[in-house]
Amino acid sequence: MADDTAPALRVLRGAPTAEELAALVGVLWGRSGATATAPAAVPAPERWRRSALPGASLRPGPGAWRASGLPG
């Protein structure tokens, strides 16, 4: 279990100012939040749906006859 009084960040070398530490914490906090709030990936439409979309490329090939009549 983590101790609540232990510092989350420790400076090993140098003597940063309060402004420098604040900038570092802001960058780290922003980066951690960026991954948590990333939008979920939108799944690609199924083959049946894609055939109805404008600009769908209808090409003959293996399994094309099955894709033309059956949902994905």
Keywords for this entry:
single chain, 72 residues, mainly alpha, 3 helices
Describe this structure in words.
The chain is an all-alpha fold. The chain has a domain at 7-37. It contains three helices and no strands. The chain has helices at residues 18-36, 47-52, 64-69. The longest helix is centred in the middle third of the chain and has 19 residues, at 18-36.
Count all strands and give the number.
0
Secondary-structure class: mainly alpha
Shape: rod-shaped
| Secondary-structure element string | HHH
Q: In short, what is this structure?
A:
The protein has 72 residues and is an all-alpha fold. It has helices spanning 18-36, 47-52, 64-69.
Helix and strand topology:
Blueprint: H1 18-36, H2 47-52, H3 64-69
